[in-house]
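Quick check before the chapter quiz. The format below is the same one you will see on the exam, so make sure you can read both the input and the output lines.
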Amino acid sequence: MILKKYNKEYANKILKWANEKEAFYKWTAGILGDYPINEEKFNKVDSIIALTAYEDKNLIGFFTFRYPNKTINELRMGFIIVDPKYRGKGYGKKMIVEGLNYAKKVLHAKKVSLAVFENNIPAYYCYKSAGFVDINIEKIEKYKLDGKELRCRNLEVTL
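Here is the expected output.
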């Protein structure tokens, strides 16, 4: 697996991976806007560290890093998604591990954190298998989707 800087020409393809409202909100928490979003809105991710994952020259995944604090030692991973035809086959874990290697070797981070919705069990276990551990924070992130409250679990890994 190789990682490459995000290329805007793949926006439409990546957006199709979360082409239902619930899947879209599990992926973005609505941070990019209301479902559905267009390529222009999605391409705002280019203002942070946006990466794509390739396996055998096939685009299989996407994620971002951002600096949540003023320090360069800590990164926040987000907008993590794998092409549905590659899910459940270990590619998500592989992508996360490659992302963590990138964070350590290229971005010189010491810690990476992320949040995942409590009802996104496959993603939660993917992150755990890649080395993330649960952390407790004072304020739990909560989002609304069709009148239902979605709560987040926070995880981190020390590099």
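If your answer matched, good. The CA atoms of residues 15 and 111 lie 28 Å apart.
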